[in-house]
Amino acid sequence: MDYIALVTGADRGLGFALSKGLLERGWHVFAGQYMPEWPELAALASQFPGRLDIVSLDVSSIESVYAAAQAVSQRTDHLDLLISNAGIGGGHQELREGLDARMYSSAAIHRAYDVNALGAIRMVEAFLPLADRGMRRLAFVSSEAGSIAMAHRQGGFAYGMSKAALNMAVKIMFNTLRPEGYTFRLYYPGWIRSYMGGTKSTVGDMEPDEAAARAIPFFLEQRDDEDRLVMIGYQGEEWPF
Amino acid sequence: MDHTGEGSRIAFVTGADRGLGLALTARLMDKGWRVFAGQYMPDWPELSVLMAQHPSLTLVPLDVSSDESVRAAARAVMGAVDRVDLLVNNAGVSSPTLGRSIREPQDYTEMHRMYDVNAVGPLRMVQAFLPLTDQSAMKRLCFVSSEAGSINCCTRTAGYGYCMSKTALNMAVRMLFNVLRPDGYSFRVYHPGWLRSYMRGTKSTEGDLEPEQAAVPALAYFLRDRAADPHNPTRCDDDRLVMRDWQGREWPW
User: CA-CA distance, B138 to B5, in Å (whole number)?
Assistant: First the structure.
């Protein structure tokens, strides 16, 4: 039987690379598509006929998430791995430039929260029935920017707050679902030359494919201690909350 | 050094209509502070009663979830005084939908609301009041947070919106600390205990503390300078950001 994964934010960047990496490992992948005009997913589907299903998905909309769950449940009776990867940057707010400065608004703070934190909750809420019948592995792409203990930045409130909130949400899910046999992967994938700012970044330590090559083993392998929720980074290091 | 009893000290308290905010406001005035009280509920009588008793109290309309309301409040205070020494970010909301587990449909509208008031509200306040707090020698920024925001200590299986809002608040304060500590600001992130307050809309009968009781250790902590770590006198809370509770215990993030 195929192992089946769903990846949110699979249009490009890390999500696309995760989808490709899983397909190369023989998995069946449901790829959450937010940007139908972006061509890469369609091209990937033709490289892996019958094993990549593209599903329309906007994690900031509960209707879209439930519709995606419905669409997926037409084609499979279970999900083994749910990867909440869809995420956005929040703009670069500087405190002394002001909340109402050109680059900085409460709206940006709420949007980042909606996608990065609430999006992950919507996904687990809607896909739990499918996940219950599979391997029960839930993976979340977080960030060192969400570590309060290590927080060093002086700007970019929206993103840091949204990733800290995501980490809290995952902890509460862990408290509920770990006793039911779920295992969790809360992950900092590194600084990736991806599209978080809207266009392909020229700065960063890794291409998306390199990041996915590290992330996928972490998502798939067994861990010694599943009974403690930790955020692990791309070099295997633990990040404090 | 302690700043009690000095009549020249000026404070702003958000969410002062009732509960902990009202109690902190009353206590500050008893200590001789001039207080600007953020009023969200003009129909709630207690603040007006307090104002009748205390000429040093000024009511300022304030909805911390509104950029415009926060800016207007800052302008109102700037029209009256040249500085604010103590900013108490107390306004906070909870939700009756809080008890839902992940196997139940969540209320995402309520989650946004709690985030807006509890996490973004204090950020709006600090930003808007910078011109006033920059003029102060004390520069004390206080945030009523909660153990519910501690990821490390969280054993809850519900309460996503409230917990995330307090975690995000803690992160926002950590970043504010990074920016403002070099400018001489000091911070108090506080878990006040489990209060019989109005967070869900009506006065709770559950809880360990009445607001008036909770205000005593809260204000002592907010006003104490260079709050020492009671377990290690060589460490000072002002130089590293910590969350402490009403019994002086430190909470991990």
Answer: 14
Instruction: Report the pLDDT averaged over residues B149-166.
Output: 97
CA angle A7, A8, A10 (to 5 degrees): 80
| Predicted TM-score of the model (pTM) | 0.95
More confident residue, B2 or B219: B219
Burial of A178 (0-12, 13-18, 19+ CB in 10 A): middle
Q: Are B176 and B141 in contact (CB under 8 A)?
A: yes
Which of A153, A167, A168 lies nearest to residue B178, judging by beta carbons? A153
Domain boundaries along the sequence of chain B: 10-251
List pLDDT tens digits, range B77-98.
999 999 999 999 999 999 888 8
What are the C-alpha distances in Å from B27 to residues A33, A39, B11, B21? 55, 63, 11, 10
Q: Is A62 on the interface with B (CB under 8 A)?
A: yes
Partner-chain contact B253 A149, CB within 8 Å:
yes
Angle, in degrees to the nearest 10, between helices B19-30 and B211-223: 60
Question: Chain B interface, mutation test: which of A168, A173, A175, A176, most B Cβ atoms within 10 Å?
Answer: A168
- Residues in chain A, pLDDT under 50: 100-104
The percentage of residues in chain B with a pLDDT greater than 90, rounded to a whole number, is 81
* CATH number belonging to domain B10-251: 3.40.50.720
B39 DSSP β-pair partners: B61
pLDDT tens string A118-155: 999 999 999 999 999 999 999 999 999 999 999 999 88
Residues 76-95 of A with CB under 8 A from B: 95
Cβ-based contacts under 8 A for chains A and B: 133
At A214, which amino acid appears? R
**In this complex, do B130 and A96 lie within 8 Å of one another by their Cβ atoms?**
yes
Asked if A131 has any chain B CB less than 8 Å from its own CB, the reply is no
Residues from chain A that touch B178, judged by Cβ atoms under 8 A, are 151-154
**pLDDT given for residue B227 in this prediction:** 62
Residue type, A131: A
Residue B229 has pLDDT above 70, yes or no: no
DSSP 3-state of A139: strand
A162 CB within 8 Å of a chain B CB:
yes
ipTM of this predicted structure: 0.96
Whether A88 contacts A15, CB under 8 Å: no
Tell whether B174 is within 8 A of chain A (Cβ).
Answer: yes
pLDDT in tens, B186-222: 999 999 999 988 887 788 888 889 999 999 999 999 9
Note the pLDDT of residue B4: 41
**CA A149, CA B12: separation in Å to the nearest integer?**
28
> What is the C-alpha separation between B35 and B84, in angstroms, rounded?
9
**CATH superfamily placement of domain A4-239:** NAD(P)-binding Rossmann-like Domain (3.40.50.720)
